[in-house]
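Milestone 3.1: sequence recovery, worked example.
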C-alpha cells in the first residue's frame, strides 16, 4: 500500500527539521558502537567488582557471552509494576538458557499518579520522568551491558526509560511489559459513583467500595489512560514483541513472552549477527508510527508531552503541529474507556493492536519499513502470540474485528479523525482531545472564572458558585510554575456541571489525566502563565472562545493584549512533600510544547 500523503509529508517535515540533530546523534552512537563490547575495556579490577556477586562470574570473566542488564521500575506501590518483583529470576533463567548472563543494572523510581491525584505529590510527577531517565543512565553507566531490558509500564516511567534507552542508543533495548489487571467494576460505573460523590449523592463508603472493585489486583489499571497508551506506543514503535502489551500478569503466556523478550535481547547484541542499536529503532518513522497509534486508539494527551521529550533524546524534533496533522489523517478505530465503555482487556479480545496495525498498514497510514526488536518490519506486528507448551509462537492475528462496538476497520471507523486538535490564538498554543467529547461541546463561548490552583476550583464548586456557562481557567500549572500536575481530580465536578445542563470547559497551562474525556479541556497552553504567558492576563468575566473545530482559543476582551500579566507566586509550590529538591527542575524545564523536560 502506498504511504498516505499526509503521513509522508509529516515524516519528511520531521526529518528535515531534525536533520542536524539526528545526524549528530547517529554519529555519537556510531562512535560508541565502534569501541566494541563494552566490558572489553574494563580493567581486571573493574571487572572483578562488576562480577563479584554473580554465580556465573567465571563465564563473565572468560567468555564472550552477552551480558544483559535489567533496568527495573519494580515497586509494589504501583499495581502495574508489582508483577515485576519476580521477573529478574525468570529473566536470569531465560538468559542462561539463551547463552547469556544477566544482571539487574539498577532500579528507577516509579510513582503512582492514581495515589497522588489532587495531592501535593502530583507536582513531582512530570519531573519524575527526568529522574527516571537519570537513574537509568546511572544504571547503564557501569558500561557492562551488551543489551538492556527495560521493565516499566506507567505514566512517566516508560517515557523516562525511552529517554535513557535513546541516550545510550548504541545499546540494544527491549521493553518488557507486565500487562493489565483482569477486568473489575466497569470504568463507567466507577466514574458514575465518583460523580455521585462529588454531587453529595453517595457517601465515602460507597465511593471506596467502587474504587476498590475497580482497582483490585496486580496489573495496569484497565482504562485507556497514559499507562496503557505507553504500552500501545512501545508496540507501534517496535520496542515490544508483537501482541505482548495487553496479556494479563501472572499467566503462562505472560511468562513465555518475557522469556521470548530475553531471547531477543541476547540475539541483537554486537556479539552476534543481528546487532540492533536502540537508536536505529528510534528514528523519525518510529515516532510517526507511535503518533498514528495514539490517534487511532484515542490515547492519552500526556503522550503529546512525552513523545517530544523521548524523540529529542534520539535527535528527532517533534512539534504539536505534527500531532495535529497526523490526527487529521488517522481515523479513530477504537472505543476504550474513557472514549467508550470497553476496557483494554475487551479491546485486546476484540483483535487488539495486531488487528489495528494490520488495518493501518493496509490503509497506508504506517511506515512498514522500520526496524523493530522482532527482526521484521512492522508487518510482523499483525501476528498474535499463542502458547505451545511453555513456548510462545506467533500466528496470524484477527483479519476482522471480533467486536465492532470496540474496534472497527480503518474503512469504517468511529470517527474520521483521531480527535486531537492543535489550538492557537491570543491565549497561546496548546491541544484539546475531543474523541470522547460530544460534538455539541466542541465549541464554547463563555465567561471565564480564573483560579490559581485546583483547590480554589473545588472550593467554588462546593460553594455553588458555578451557575452559568463557564470556562474554568486554572493557571500557574505549567512545568516552571509547579511541575505541571495533572488536574484529573477536577473532572467529576466539571462533569456534574455538564450534567446539570451547563456548557463548561477547562483552560489550563497544566495537564489532564489520560483518563479524562467528556469535558472539553484546552491543555498544555504555552507560553505558561508563570513566565508571563497570556493566561496571566485573564480576568474573571472575560469572554473566551474555544473552538475545537477551527483550533481557535481566544480572549475577546478588547484590552487583553495591553494588560500587565498577573505575577506568579512560587511560595505555595516551593516546599513540602519534596518540592524543595525539585526546584532545579522547575527552574530549568523546557516549554510544554517541547515536552517540559530538563534532561533533553
Amino acid at each position: 500500500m502506498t504511504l498516505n500523503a499526509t503521513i509522508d509529508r509529516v515524516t519528511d517535515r520531521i526529518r528535515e527539521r531534525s536533520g542536524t540533530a539526528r545526524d549528530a546523534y547517529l554519529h555519537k552512537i556510531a562512535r560508541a558502537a565502534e569501541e566494541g563490547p563494552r566490558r572489553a575495556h574494563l580493567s581486571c579490577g573493574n571487572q572483578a567488582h562488576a562480577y563479584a556477586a554473580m554465580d556465573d562470574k567465571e563465564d563473565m570473566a572468560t567468555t564472550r557471552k552477552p551480558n544483559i542488564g535489567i533496568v527495573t521500575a519494580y515497586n509494589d506501590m504501583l499495581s502495574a509494576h508489582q508483577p515485576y518483583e519476580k521477573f529478574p529470576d525468570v529473566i536470569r533463567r531465560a538468559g542462561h538458557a539463551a547463552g547469556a548472563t544477566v544482571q539487574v543494572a539498577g532500579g528507577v523510581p516509579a510513582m503512582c499518579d492514581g495515589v497522588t491525584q489532587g495531592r501535593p505529590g502530583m507536582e513531582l510527577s512530570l519531573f519524575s520522568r527526568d529522574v527516571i531517565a537519570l537513574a537509568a543512565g546511572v544504571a547503564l553507566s557501569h558500561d557492562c551491558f551488551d543489551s538492556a531490558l527495560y521493565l516499566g509500564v506507567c505514566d512517566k516511567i516508560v517515557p523516562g526509560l525511552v529517554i535513557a534507552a535513546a541516550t545510550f542508543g548504541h545499546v540494544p533495548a527491549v521493553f518488557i511489559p507486565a500487562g493489565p489487571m483482569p477486568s473489575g467494576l466497569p470504568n463507567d460505573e466507577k466514574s458514575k459513583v465518583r460523580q455521585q460523590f462529588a454531587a453529595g449523592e453517595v457517601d465515602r463508603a460507597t465511593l471506596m467500595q467502587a474504587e476498590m472493585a475497580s482497582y483490585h489486583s496486580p496489573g495496569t489499571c484497565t482504562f485507556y489512560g497514559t499507562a496503557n497508551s505507553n504500552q500501545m506506543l512501545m508496540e507501534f514503535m517496535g520496542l515490544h514483541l508483537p501482541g505482548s502489551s495487553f496479556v494479563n500478569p501472572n499467566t503462562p503466556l505472560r511468562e513465555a513472552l518475557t522469556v521470548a523478550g530475553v531471547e531477543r535481547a541476547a540475539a541483537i547484541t554486537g556479539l552476534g549477527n543481528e546487532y540492533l542499536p536502540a537508536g536505529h529503532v528510534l528514528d523519525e518513522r518510529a515516532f510517526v508510527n507511535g503518533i498514528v497509534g495514539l490517534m487511532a486508539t484515542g490515547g492519552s494527551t500526556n503522550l503529546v508531552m512525552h513523545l517530544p521529550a523521548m524523540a529529542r533524546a534520539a535527535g528527532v524534533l517533534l512539534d504539536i503541529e505534527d500531532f495535529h496533522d497526523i490526527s487529521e489523517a488517522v481515523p479513530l478505530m477504537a472505543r476504550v474507556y474513557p472514549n467508550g465503555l470497553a476496557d483494554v482487556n475487551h479491546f485486546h479480545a476484540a483483535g487488539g493492536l495486531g488487528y489495528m496495525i494490520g488495518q493501518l498498514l493496509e490503509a497506508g497510514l504506517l511506515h512498514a519499513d522500520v526496524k523493530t526488536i522482532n527482526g521484521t518490519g512492522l508487518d510482523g506486528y499483525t501476528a498474535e502470540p499463542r502458547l505451545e507448551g511453555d513456548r510462545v509462537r506467533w500466528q496470524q492475528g484477527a483479519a476482522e474485528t471480533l467486536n465492532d462496538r470496540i474496534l472497527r476497520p480503518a474503512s469504517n471507523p468511529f470517527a474520521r479523525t483521531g480527535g486531537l486538535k492543535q489550538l492557537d490564538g491570543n491565549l497561546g498554543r496548546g491541544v484539546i482531545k475531543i474523541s470522547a467529547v460530544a460534538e455539541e461541546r466542541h465549541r464554547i463561548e463563555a465567561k471565564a472564572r480564573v483560579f490559581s490552583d485546583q483547590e480554589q476550583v473545588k472550593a467554588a464548586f462546593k460553594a455553588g458558585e458555578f451557575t452559568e456557562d463557564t470556562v474554568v481557567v486554572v493557571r500557574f500549572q505549567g512545568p516552571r510554575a509547579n511541575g505541571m500536575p495533572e488536574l484529573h481530580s477536577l473532572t467529576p465536578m466539571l462533569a456534574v456541571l455538564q450534567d446539570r445542563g451547563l456548557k463548561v470547559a477547562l483552560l489550563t497551562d497544566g495537564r489532564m489525566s489520560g483518563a479524562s474525556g467528556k469535558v472539553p479541556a484546552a491543555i498544555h497552553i504555552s507560553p505558561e502563565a508563570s513566565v508571563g504567558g497570556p493566561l496571566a492576563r485573564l480576568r474573571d468575566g472575560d469572554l473566551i472562545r474555544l473552538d475545537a473545530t477551527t483550533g481557535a482559543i481566544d480572549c475577546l476582551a478588547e484590552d487583553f493584549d495591553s494588560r500587565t500579566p498577573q505575577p506568579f507566586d512560587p511560595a505555595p509550590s516551593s516546599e513540602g512533600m519534596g518540592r524543595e529538591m525539585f526546584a532545579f527542575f522547575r527552574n530549568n524545564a523546557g516549554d510544554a510544547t517541547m515536552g517540559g523536560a530538563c534532561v533533553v
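The chain has a mean pLDDT of 93. Residues 41 and 254 are 37 Å apart (CA to CA).
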